[in-house]
Amino acid sequence: MDFYQRFSQYYDDIFPFAPQQYSFLISLVKEKDWILDIGCGTGNYIIELCKNNDIYGVGLDLDPAMIAKAVTKGEGLANLQLLVKNMLEIDELKEKFDLAYCIGNSLPHLVEKSLIKEFIQKVFGILRDNGKLVLQTVNYDNNPKSLKTIVNKEKDIKFIRNYQYSIVDGERIVDFCTILEGRDFKLTGKVQLYPIKSYQLIEILKEVGFKEIELFGSFNREEFNPNYSSSLVILAKK
Ligand SMILES: C[S@@+](CC[C@H](N)C(=O)[O-])C[C@H]1O[C@@H](n2cnc3c(N)ncnc32)[C@H](O)[C@@H]1O
Fold it and tell me: Whose CA is nearest to atom 3 of ligand 1?
């Protein structure tokens, strides 16, 4: 069974809506904008944006179970479309967007640098002039071996996350190994990720034509520190 299908039922208990993510995104939005959430998961951010603002939103995710959750949560929102779609197929979308974002470490699921470049080229193609792109990944500059365990006391669950690095076809890959433990269940999971470093992303964004590339260490706009930040947030303009 697919990694996210297994976890979709618990996803919002592990990664609930985070106001700082929303504040960052809303600061980039104008009335009537078209906004694209790429790898939207259960739709937390695109749903909230569409609920509270006069905008048009599209959320897409590869995993049907994650999109099914998002559809239930976003019911009745006429300005929202939710699609089961691979992020490498965004060039098939008919609309052009003012803001596209790919957050929550969705981007490293493309497990080759060439695929990440192909994706960023396609994002450039579907953005309007002066459109913006937000990317957020784990900070792989400092080669994390594990991520902080997430504990939800109310639901009595914990999510343990480890990284195992290896070389596959000359590319450095990481196996993201997880254990989700509840009162009466234990779910293990493993998914391959490409641990892309900040300099590689900047290089790709520049090659593709993005300008005004800003780096942050969190959605609170803290300075990015390659040694200490746990997260990398990039804002780039077309
Ligand atoms: C960790 S979740 C992040 C979800 C959401 N962005 C958030 O911040 O809560 C990563 C998501 O990326 C999706 N994903 C992985 N590969 C994808 C692809 N090639 N195209 C679209 N979505 C993908 C997964 O199905 C999963 O829902």
Answer: 104
Q: Is 40 in the pocket of ligand 1 (CB under 6 A)?
A: yes
Token pair 């990664």 is found at 15
Structural domain of 117: 3-139+196-237
Residue 22 CB less than 6 A away from ligand 1: no
How many distinct structural domains can be found in the chain? 2
Q: Are residues 163 and 223 in the same domain?
A: no
Distance 58 CA to ligand 1 centre (A): 14
Domain shared by 10 and 75, yes or no: yes
Neighbours of 168 (CB within 10 A): 12
In whole numbers, what is the pLDDT of the chain averaged over residues?
A: 96
Ligand 1 within 6 A of CB of 126: no
> Does one domain contain both 172 and 101?
no
Per-residue pLDDT of 34-83, as tens digits, reads 999 999 999 999 999 999 999 999 999 999 999 999 999 999 999 999 99
Is 119 found in the same domain as 94?
A: yes
Cβ contacts of 198 within 8 Å, gap of 6 or more: 139, 140, 141, 215, 224, 226, 232, 234
* Distance between Cα 232 and ligand 1 center (Å): 16
